[in-house]
Amino acid sequence: MPRLIEYREAIREALDEELARDPMVVVMGEEVAQYNGAYKVTKGLWEKWGDKRMVDTPISEAGFIGMGIGASMLGVRPVMELMFWSFYTVAWDQIVNNAAMVRYMSGGKINCPIVIRGPANGGTNVGATHSHTPENIMASFPGMKCVVPSNAYDAKGLLKAAIRDNDPVMFMESTKLYGEKWDVPANEDLPNGELVIPLGVADVKREGTDLSLIAHGRAVITCLEAAKRLEEEHGIHCEVVDLRTIRPLDEDTIFDSVRKTHKAIYVEEGKPFCGVGAQIAYMIQERCFDDLDAPVLRVNSLDAPAIYSPPLENLQLPYADVIIEKALSIA
Amino acid sequence: MPKALSPNLPSQAPINQALKPSDKVDLYRTMVRIRKFEQRSLNSYQSGKVGGFLHLYIGQESVVVGTQSLLGANDHTITAYRNHGHGLAAGMNMNECMAELYGRATGCSKGKGGSMHYFAPDKNYWGGHGIVAGQTPLGTGLAYGLKYRGLKGCALAFLGDGAVNQGSFHESLNLAALWDLPIIYVIENNGYSMGTSQRRSSAYPSCLAERAEGYGMAWDQFDGTNLYEVRARTQVAIERAHNESKPTLLEIATYRWEGHSVADAMKTVYRTKEEIEKYQREHDPIMVWKEILISENIATEAELKQIDRAAQKEADEAADFAEVSPYPEPESIFDDVYWETDNKTEAGNTGRHFFND
After folding, report:
1. Considering chain A, what is the average pLDDT of its residues?
2. What percent of chain B clears pLDDT 70, i.e. is strictly above it?
3. Can you give the pTM of this predicted structure?
4. CA–CA min distance A100, chain B (Å)
5. Does residue A80 belong to any structural domain of this protein?
């Protein structure tokens, strides 16, 4: 009997379980406590855990993210919510120079066990300032980890691992997925009694033989839709590989898939230039050159700031038709 | 401009009355050790043995020595890039500090941080930060961590007068006041944010610290030349943090004798030679303290000279130590990036962490 829960509930369960497991875990962010979260991810947690563990912050990202990093140096394990990952820009100095670099610059004397989480997606008609998808930026800095779950099951398991990780983890969700439901088994139905998914393990979401669609985050869902149609309408059997975490990266699962299908397309909601797909395509050509029957292609958001106008915004983000067209071009 | 010493005799404050003669000599020794270290590192820089930036603390020694001398087991410090004095005052040794300037494996950060990035968390000293005011939210977090863990302590977050216009500093003040955090922000006001004077860079009522009024935060402003004054006035803030868990903004007037960094060729252009010499003559914290020790019959001139010589020797030996120390091994470039890979944990062994083709 599947237990269908929303993506946001899966995140909430992970937070709740980690709050219970470790008294050093504290959830902070704008509207996370008394307001129950701008997207209701943290609904009910303040009522259950109170002011000490669930902290409403002012709109002050540089201040409270930096404060969380400082507290993490003393052993507190803050899970910081950015209402939108788009707001990383105002906390960027703290994230990149302090969370990501302080361990290195101190010769390993300090570590920052902090998670910064929140939605990082476009497609919600809110314009360019609130539609950033900075996972390529986060993943490009050694010292940080970058996690992008595509579904509720992964979101719960990966968030629990991220909170237990002793390095700074940038955890990126999607408001477009918050209300979607997936089967997430109850703890009592799991062999280990809980769901923890290690960072750095990719997941083959659909087996296939003809073409590898490789993706992270919500683009995985788009790939699954495209794969279904490619099979039904064109008899092309796509494999869908979900990175789950960009850094650390499970490259073996990517290479194994490409060696099987001999063709690959990277799909992501980020922009093409210096995107995650650029790195993955580079790695595939370098390691699987003789296995490839076609150039590695990419599907990204169209290369302009996120447009507001709803019908055009839908065209700007990757959608199944674009993936199908690209797939047919190398089929 | 520094004001005259307050008339209510800071030397008579209980915290100063509690000083034993040997404590007072130790304060002198620490100030002299900082100065000799800085002078020696300047020599090394000028002879091309040390690269990068070098922001010298000469002239400001009393600020960190006075404040640090008040701290206990649960009190923590953090500062910006002019941080050698803070490291030494916290108890770091000259060898590790000098070797860091030389980029050696024996440096306090294994040669990975350089001049601006000294750290000694085992001594409650959290660096050593390169971005102006970027350390102030971290200091706020140290205070938050102390409060969260139920420890009676405080954080001292030092910053320069050039840092007071950064947003992260104001955000820190707001959070500290909002949540009653046990922190003291210490503006070490040396009058110049790099080459721009306070008047040319900041808008303020009577002084920079008065901005605390806007956050309903306690504040104080005083001259930092005399250790008695620094200790007496800072102690009030520490007690406020310890006993009431309330923040304070302190502004301590001081003066840097050298440029913003050693590379500051304009140091006698944006301020006059006369001004520099006046501070060297009348506000040298080491000379002032020396005169106090002699007048109180705690030490003789000869005894203090002996301390000067020992500090000079220690600094010279630190430079010798640094010079013969090995550079870090190339493989160490990938150490100290991730805790999990350093500790060879399962998480550290899962997935690829480094991307060097």
Report:
1. 98
2. 98
3. 0.96
4. 8
5. yes
Residues A65 and A110 occupy one common structural domain: yes
- Percentage helix, strand, coil, to 5, in chain B? 50, 10, 40
Please state, in angstroms and rounded to a whole number, the distance separating the CA atoms of residues B29 and B78. Answer: 22
Q: Does B337 touch chain A (CB under 8 A)?
A: yes
How far apart are the CA of B170 and the nearest CA of chain A, in angstroms? 8
Asked if residue A177 and residue A130 are part of one domain, the reply reads yes
A320: distance to nearest CA of chain B, Å?
29
Contacts of B160 (CB under 8 A, 6+ apart): B80, B82, B132, B187, B188, B189, B190, B193
Pairwise CB contact (< 8 Å): A69 & B137: yes
Task: Indicate the pLDDT class of residue B265, thresholds 50, 70 and 90.
Answer: confident
| pLDDT at res. B266 | 86
State the ipTM, two decimals.
0.96
Query: So where are chain B's domains?
Result: 10-326
Say whether residue B350 is in contact with chain A using an 8 A CB cutoff: yes
**Pairwise CB contact (< 8 Å): B351 & A142:** no
- B131 vs A: CB within 8 A: yes
Structure tokens belonging to residue A179: 């209300």
Q: Which residues in chain B are closer than 8 Å to A142, comparing Cβ atoms?
A: 337-338, 353-354
Do both A149 and A249 map to the same domain?
no
Kindly report the number of other CB atoms within 10 A of residue B294's CB atom: 14
Residue A331: predicted pLDDT: 87
* Domains held by chain A: number: 2
For domain B10-326, the CATH superfamily is: Thiamin diphosphate (ThDP)-binding fold, Pyr/PP domains (3.40.50.970)
In which domain, by residue range, is A131 found?
4-189
